[in-house]
Design brief:
single chain; elongated; about 20% strand; TIM Barrel; alpha/beta; 6-stranded antiparallel beta sheet; 7-stranded parallel beta sheet
């Protein structure tokens, strides 16, 4: 790895930074997760990520230091900065450009005393008052080099912390002054909220009092709780194709009346992720930009081979949540009906009709 950058070089690079990636190790095994993360960081920084924060709470000090050294080398190849979360004691040994601390972690002043002026220090902020305090400390020369504003959306890494939304980000843009800031928290393309500032735009348009019809063009279900409560008409167009404009216009003007019979789940909040759907065992359905693995640590999903009972084929998907002792199995039935039966002692199967037949089995014991 090249010689460490000076504090002036790091701060100059920070002023140019626009895209900030927060990433844990993840993976089922530490080695597997570390390899995946190294590949991810190389691809992300080559693609334009300016700052990478390594946020990992479970590795040993030695393993975390070694991983930080690998990521630091990857970041330097693309002139990106590496920030180590909440470990000022390991930042220098890990080759990081700085550390990030939260409101309840080591105070910025103590981190600065430990690291000196050559290292960057970032601080999490969750309110207008915290943004103002960070700005004034930075002006006095005793504060953080940048702040993170969020979480914009709820995130599984900070369970119980409410989302601040885009309004706090707008406040930071207007009041942070010369202090660099980054919006963080649930900002990925697996998020199901309206992208960008569209939610704010929708609320402002609705505030005019004019009648509104909301047309959604998207490739996956969105969380539209606010729109459902405040907008009189919502049309889901998905990706409608070259005749989509004509179809949308005809629908809005009442020339046709489409009926929605798709068996699609629309989550009410990000906290319900990951949703799952039954699938053909010969295929895997993934996010375009995600591996499709559960984003919440306590959830797991398991594939099961197609079973055939009384001549009807089942395509099962299994979900368990150990926090609540819930064990459930769902089966897409390739049949027009399903008699009540007992599967492996799991209890009766009930059918529900949503254009297709779904069977639900309540399991009384944990899945093997």
């Amino acid at each position: 790895m090249d010689s460490p950058r000076s504090g002036a070089e790091r701060r100059a690079r920070l002023q140019q930074a626009r895209l900030y990636l927060v990433c844990p190790v993840g993976g089922r095994l530490p080695d597997e997760g570390a390899r995946h993360l190294s590949e991810l960081v190389r691809a992300a920084t080559a693609g334009g990520v300016d700052v990478v924060q390594l946020r990992e709470k479970h590795l040993s000090d030695d393993a975390l230091t070694q991983l930080a050294l690998e990521l630091a080398a990857a970041c330097q190849q693309s002139d990106a900065l590496l920030i180590l979360n909440d470990r000022p004691d390991l930042a220098v040994a890990g080759g990081a450009d700085g550390v990030h601390v939260g409101q309840d972690d080591m105070p910025v002043e103590d981190a600065r005393a430990l690291l000196g002026d050559e290292m960057l220090i970032g601080l999490s902020t969750h309110s207008e008052a915290q943004i103002d305090a960070a700005r004034e400390s930075a002006r006095a020369g005793s504060g953080a080099d940048y702040i993170a504003v969020g979480p914009v959306h709820e995130t599984p890494t900070k369970l119980g912390r409410p989302a601040v939304g885009a309004k706090l980000v707008s406040y930071a843009a207007a009041h942070a002054g010369e202090l660099p800031f980054f919006a963080i928290g649930g900002l990925d393309r697996s998020n199901l909220d309206l992208p960008g500032n569209q939610e704010m735009l929708l609320e402002n348009v609705a505030a005019t009092g004019k009648p509104i019809a909301l047309v959604l063009e998207n490739g996956r279900p969105l969380t539209i709780g606010w729109a459902k409560e405040h907008i009189a008409a919502i049309l889901e167009a998905w990706y409608p194709g070259e005749f989509g404009g004509q179809a949308v216009a005809e629908t809005l003007f009442g020339d046709n009346n489409p009926a929605g019979r798709l068996t699609i789940t629309f989550p009410r909040s990000l906290g319900q992720l990951p949703d799952f759907y039954n699938f053909d065992p010969s295929r895997m359905h993934k996010y375009v930009d995600d591996d499709g693995e559960p984003m919440v640590e306590n959830h797991f999903y398991r594939r099961i081979e197609v079973a055939e009972i009384f001549g009807w084929k089942f395509v099962p998907a299994v979900m368990a949540d150990h926090r609540f002792g819930i064990h459930a199995q769902t089966n897409m039935i390739e049949s027009h009906r399903l008699d009540e039966c007992d599967i492996a002692g799991g209890g009766p199967v009930f059918k529900m009709i949503f254009g297709v037949t779904l069977g639900i089995v309540n399991l009384r014991k944990p899945l093997a």
